[in-house]
Structure formats: C-alpha cells, structure tokens
Amino acid sequence: MTTTHKSEAPATGPRGRRRSFDLDEAVDTAMRLFHARGYDAVGVAELGAELGIKPPSFYAAFGSKAGLFERALQRYAAGEANIFAKALEEGGGVAAVIARTLDLAARLYPERNGVAGCLVLDGARNSADPEACALSAAAKTASRNALRDFIAAERPDRAEDLADFVVIAMAGMSAAARDGAGESTLKPFAETISRAFQRELSSEG
User: Fold this and answer.
1) Can you list the domains of the chain with their CATH numbers?
2) Residue-wise pLDDT tens digits, 42-95
3) Where are the alpha helices (DSSP H) in 63-182?
C-alpha cells in the first residue's frame, strides 16, 4: 500500500541541541516493532529500552507513542514497502501496474525475520488507541485514493469500485500473510485477482 508522508523533524532537541541518539535509526527500529507486533503490543517502556533513551527523551523527541507511530508510517511509505509506488516505477497501463502491485504484495507480505503483512493495513488493527487508529485510517485512505486516481486515468467511471477491489484484496493478502500464508499461497491468489481486475477494467458500463 501507499501513504502520504510529511518531512520528518531534524534530529535536534530543545534550543537546537543534538539528541543523544540517532533519530533515523530510532524510527526504523520502531517501524520494525510496530510492523512485527502491532501498535498496542509495543509499549513505551519497551520502545525506550530498544532505542536506548529514557521517557523524558522519548517524549521530547516524538511527543507520544502515537507520534512515533506516525513517523514510522511515514518512513514505511517512503521505502521499499510502498509497493504501489514501486510498481509505478516500471511504467505501463493500469492493468499492468495493478498486476505488478499485487505480485509484489504476494512476494513481500509473507513473513521475513518475524515481520509479515503491511504496516499500513495491519499495524493498528484492533487498536484501542483512537489516535493510532486515526493515523492508520488516514494512511489507508491516502493509499486507496492514490490507486483510485491512477485507475481513473483509464476508467474514471469505475475508479472508485476498482480501487476498493484492489484494496480489499491486498488487505486480505496482508492478513493471510500475518496468519502464516507464504508466497506459494499468495502468488496464485494475486494472479487470480489480477485477471479479475483486468476483466472488470475492460468491461462495459
């Protein structure tokens, strides 16, 4: 999936002092933890221990756990995990790019080093934190709208429902990967969804 991202704050503390930890590395670490275990399962104390900072430094740097989650979502969207952006890089029409997106999901969502699925789709699933849920929902909406706008270049009349079709399929693939489905299971599914998408894309009305 994709999401929009804002510029990350510079690694400086109050009054321009340098922080005693690497901000980029901290966000990467948090991103991996949130991705692997979900937002609610990762506590502030654990994050602080993993990042090597005490609570005052944590809150000074990120404001809150949700603030760090927002940074993690931004970092995720800017990297290789942004499979729609990656699929777009090779060019092609709507059917080709969507097929490539689904294929990438089938290859990247299965578990690797304890991490499976998509952070945007599953990072805050069932979370009790309304701020984290809102951040996740905003990222999902941005992803879905990017797909819709791309599809609209060829089928403006079907862009809404076809975008939903792809998003729902990818959400299912992410959830299946987190439940243990591997590439051998997800790839045939992605190919079936790609064929169905192409049929719908070219259908009348």
Assistant:
1) 23-77 (1.10.10.60), 82-201 (1.10.357)
2) 999 999 999 889 889 999 999 999 999 999 999 998 888 899 999 999 999 999
3) 65-77, 83-89, 94-108, 119-122, 130-152, 159-178
**pLDDT, tens digit, 9 for 90 and up, residues 9-51:** 444 444 444 445 688 899 999 999 999 999 999 999 999 999 8
CA atoms within 13 A on the CB side of 74: 13
Nearest residue to 197 (alpha-carbon basis) of 81, 118, 86, 96: 96
Candidates 100, 119, 96, 154; CA nearest to 36 is 119
Q: Is-above-0.70 flag for pTM?
A: yes
Enumerate the β-bridge partners of residue 12.
18
